[in-house]
Amino acid sequence: MAQTSTLQVTLPQESVDFVQSKVASGEFDSESEVVREGIAALQDKDAGFEQWAREVAVPAYERLLADPSRGIPLDQVRKNLASRLSSPA
After folding, report:
1. Which of 81, 5, 67 is nearest to 36 (CA)?
2. Rounded to two decimals, what is the model's pTM?
3. What is the chain's alpha carbon radius of gyration, rounded to the nearest angstrom?
């Protein structure tokens, strides 16, 4: 088993209630398990963002730097957004 440490945290009552309800429902064996899963989900989210930045955002930015004519002027972006926001979904 991985090395563990104790960490004292202060949470809003709503969060405490949520954690306790997960244990009370039997979904988790302990409050620590709930917190560990929450941290794991946050780590996954961060990793997903890092992967997106590396594989999508940075290459797109580099393509734009290599050929600025690929870009869209800010006033056009604003017009496009305004058009989309005013159109029914």
Report:
1. 5
2. 0.70
3. 22
58 Cβ contact partners less than 8 Å away, ≥ 6 residues apart: none
How many domains are contained in the chain? 1
Is 75 contained in some domain?
A: yes
40-78: per-residue pLDDT in tens? 999 999 999 999 999 999 999 999 999 999 999 999 999
Residue with tokens 């989210």: 45
In a domain, 3, yes or no: no
30-35-36 Cα angle (round to 5): 95
